[in-house]
Write a structure and sequence with these properties.
The complex is a heterodimer of chains A (about 290) and B (about 450).
Chain A (H helix, E strand, L loop, with lengths): L1 H31 L6 H17 L4 H29 L4 H23 L13 E4 L2 E4 H23 L1 H11 L1 H6 L4 H27 L6 H16 L4 H21 L5 H15 L16
Antiparallel strand pairs in A: 1-2
Chain B lengths: L3 H19 L14 E7 L8 H18 L8 E7 L4 H13 L4 E6 L5 H10 L4 E3 L14 E2 L5 H14 L8 E7 L2 H4 L2 H11 L2 E8 L7 H8 L5 E5 L4 H11 L7 E3 L6 H11 L1 H7 E6 L6 H12 L16 H20 L4 H13 L5 E3 L2 H9 L4 E3 L18 E6 L5 E6 L2 H11 L3
Parallel strand pairs in B: 1-2, 1-3, 3-4, 4-5, 6-7, 6-8, 8-9, 9-10, 11-12
Antiparallel strand pairs in B: 10-13, 13-14
Helix pairs in contact in B: 2-12, 2-13, 3-4, 5-7, 5-16, 7-16, 8-9, 9-10, 10-11, 13-14, 13-15
């Protein structure tokens, strides 16, 4: 029984990491209509940016800001100079997916040439172990959970109670109408890439902290769970991505305790497939923050 | 009409001669030909096993420098090119096909790890490409692939050596409860079956047998489950994920690391750095041991290897090729390429159907053969009309009828700089006891 309680606690950390990443990923799709398969690589660029700052003697939590900045800037540039020109030419969604796949390969290989294939590891003070009713977490892990909660709340407040959030939702619902109503949609999209890029950057750093070691190729592995959470929750729906992250994160840990660990992702994705069969639009489609009005 | 027929015959003969001349490089006994030669390093350079490729490439660079420095193979210079399999069979097949299709000057291939050997060995064999593979899969113990060569033992023997280390290793009493923690990839899982069979036969308790998903973001639950079984030692190969796993062991076990014994693949600078970063140098040095192939790492052959590896260092762009100077894959594949080159010179042919059998002869030596330790000495002896036996950087090789060669195991650890340190050896009797228990398929 202790193992299952411990797995629940461990699941909270996985949920936190996936949620930060999946919300950024799904917002990119929901608002800019872009399935960005380079998301995992942007996470790793951010992770390495924070790594070099951290290795220069800066605290990991401060280094995380460098990661967020790197993610924001790279995502903004990716959109401005790669994705947007293709979208302006009318490239369809599948074509854009291929463009983003090409971007991911280019980023990964450039990174490999720069940072090499050695793994990177942050200097993190894990702090004392916190034990409670079978839960065993380090202080740093609890801090990751807190960071995730703060970011999710911030996204909620942004989307629900700010002019920018309303502009994002309007752009997501109908960009042409939004533009005709005087919303500067291009600027909104730029801001979306900066914000989601920052989320991607933070996700890269917490994923690296969570895994202890990371390499250039880690991004591809992270992306699978991110996409799964986003799709499960309803593509383009931030709240859906949070719920998707909760389900995927918890199921992977609990199935590792209940079944052989090599099947933990099989179980999680098996349930994803089941949900997709029963509700192809995802759990929160048409109900999330970016849903079309009416 | 009568006058026209001889002209047709002469034309036909002329055309045949012309064709023969053009295809000289691939016909039997047609000499060593001209132009550069290529060795393909067909291995993972990305993905979870990305650290494998560079250590093979280091061996190739050193071998190419040694050959080229001695004038090449009949004047033909050798170069190395990497073909990334990503450690996945699905990616390995197009990589192998591309390597063969785009390089008519391919003299051999090295790499082919357990990740991809099952898919690429048949392709290379069909194309008559001599290969030196680092796979440990038992399916190659008695392979019918004539162009396959292996200078390392099957993984089952690595597993037996690890058990030997757990039972007979220095500085500890025999471990009684053993945890098996291996990646869920093909290469890592090759160890599990033989280890389980041997441990059961020997009456040793298997505390837990975990196959962990390589590349997962964390292994907290897996580690919690493993710790509940209270093992004395962990036998492991989880390339790419070892740091994550061992860090969580330390975290959840009150800051204490359980002794862990790695396969020969863990004796690697990338793996070393990853695990040291995760658990700290003190805990690493106190708890890590591994098994490795018994290499001579001395003598003229090894000296030449180190000299050329040093010269190859600049090609590694800061990654320091010299970190591979004691690594068995680097040393063995270096020897494999030198053997292939000497076989070409001995056969005076660039046709692999002609020089491939010579690899066996030069490795094992025929009666009265002159022992040579370098490519240069080998060429000189061959030019003097002698038959040769190449005893290279790793020492003697003895191929069996399936082109498998092996030299036994050392029990090792690594020092604070990541250099391998031999701490013991398994006696013949100890080794045989475990092999008998596990079986030699």
């Amino acid at each position: 029984m202790d193992l299952y309680v411990a797995a629940l606690g461990f699941g909270l950390i996985s949920v936190s990491v996936i949620a930060i990443a999946a919300v950024g990923f799904t917002m990119q799709f929901g608002i800019t209509n872009m399935i960005n398969l380079a998301y995992g690589e942007v996470m790793m660029v951010s992770g390495y940016a924070a790594f070099y700052v951290n290795r220069a003697g800066v605290n990991i939590w401060v280094s995380m800001i460098a990661g967020a900045l790197a993610g924001a800037v790279l995502s903004f540039l990716l959109n401005r100079f790669l994705y947007a020109p293709f979208q302006r030419k009318g490239t369809n969604l599948i074509g854009m997916v291929i463009v983003s796949l090409a971007a991911s390969l280019m980023i990964a290989n450039v990174m490999l040439a720069i940072v090499g294939y050695y793994s990177a590891s942050y200097v993190v003070d894990q702090g004392p172990l916190v034990r409670s009713n079978g839960l065993v977490l380090t202080t740093a892990q609890i801090a990751i959970i807190v960071v995730a909660v703060i970011l999710m709340l911030a996204i909620h407040l942004l989307l629900r109670y700010t002019r920018l959030g309303k502009a994002m939702r309007a752009t997501a619902a109908n960009p042409t109408l939004a533009r005709n109503c005087g919303i500067p949609t291009q600027r909104v999209i730029d801001v979306v890439w900066l914000i989601t890029g920052a989320l991607c950057g933070v996700a890269g750093v917490v994923a690296g902290m969570n895994s202890e070691n990371f390499t250039v190729s880690s991004g591809a592995g992270y992306l699978i769970e991110i996409i799964a959470a986003a799709v499960l929750g309803g593509a383009g729906q931030p709240y859906g991505a949070m719920i998707g992250a909760l389900i995927i994160g918890m199921l992977t840990e609990l199935s590792a305790a209940a079944i052989a660990p090599e099947y933990k992702e099989v179980v999680a994705f098996g349930i994803l497939v089941l949900v997709m069969v029963l509700r192809p639009q995802g759990l929160l489609a048409k109900r999330g923050a970016l849903a079309a009005a009416g | 009409m009568r006058g026209y027929l001889p002209f047709k015959v002469v034309s036909a003969v002329g055309a045949i001669l012309l064709l023969a001349a053009c295809g000289g490089g691939s016909s039997s006994n047609a000499g060593l030909g001209s132009g550069p030669l290529l060795v393909g390093v067909l291995a993972p350079f990305s993905g979870a096993d990305a650290s494998f490729g560079p250590r093979y490439l280091a061996g190739c660079y050193a071998a190419a420098l040694s050959i080229n420095g001695a004038g090449g193979i009949g004047g033909r210079q050798v170069s190395c090119q990497q073909f990334d399999t990503r450690g996945e069979p699905a990616d390995a097949v197009p990589a192998a096909n591309a390597m063969i299709a785009s390089n008519s000057n391919l003299m051999g291939a090295v790499g082919c790890t357990s990740d991809e050997a099952s898919t690429v060995v048949p392709i290379l064999d069909r194309s008559h490409i001599p290969m030196f593979c680092m796979t440990g899969q038992s399916e190659f113990n008695k392979t019918s692939a004539k162009y396959f060569h292996r200078l390392v033992p099957p993984d089952s023997f690595d597993a037996y050596a690890m058990i030997g280390s757990a039972l007979f290793g220095p500085n500890h009493a025999p471990y009684k409860r053993i945890a098996l923690v291996f990646g869920d990839d093909i290469g890592s899982q090759n160890f599990v079956g033989p280890a389980v069979a041997a441990l059961k036969k020997l009456g040793v308790t298997i505390a837990i047998n975990q196959a962990i998903h390589l590349g997962a973001a964390s292994y907290r639950t897996e580690v919690a489950a493993m710790l509940l079984t209270h093992p004395d030692v962990i036998l492991t190969e989880t390339i790419g994920s070892a740091g994550t796993y061992m860090k969580e062991v330390k975290q959840q076990n009150g800051g204490n690391v359980i002794p862990f014994i790695g396969t020969s693949a863990t004796i690697d600078p990338v793996w070393f750095q990853q695990v040291v970063d995760a658990i700290g140098m003190t805990d690493f040095l106190a708890n890590y041991t591994a098994v490795d192939l018994r290499l001579s790492l001395s003598g003229a052959g090894y000296d030449e290897f180190v000299t050329q590896l040093t010269a190859a260092d600049s090609k590694f762009g800061g990654s320091n090729a010299l970190t591979y100077k004691g690594k068995s894959p680097t040393v063995h594949l270096y020897d494999g390429i030198i053997l292939t080159a000497l076989a070409m010179v001995a056969a005076n042919s660039s046709d692999p159907t002609v020089y491939n059998p010579k690899i066996f002869d030069i490795a094992n030596g025929v009666s009265g053969a002159t022992v040579v330790n370098t490519f240069q000495d080998g060429v000189a002896a061959l030019k003097a009309g002698k038959s040769i036996r190449y005893v290279g950087a790793a020492g003697e090789n003895n191929f069996n009828q399936w082109n498998n060669s092996q030299q036994g195991y050392n029990l090792v650890t690594m020092d604070k700089d990541g250099n391998e340190q031999v701490i013991g050896q398994l006696s013949e009797a100890q080794t045989q006891q475990i092999i008998d228990a596990g079986g030699n398929a």
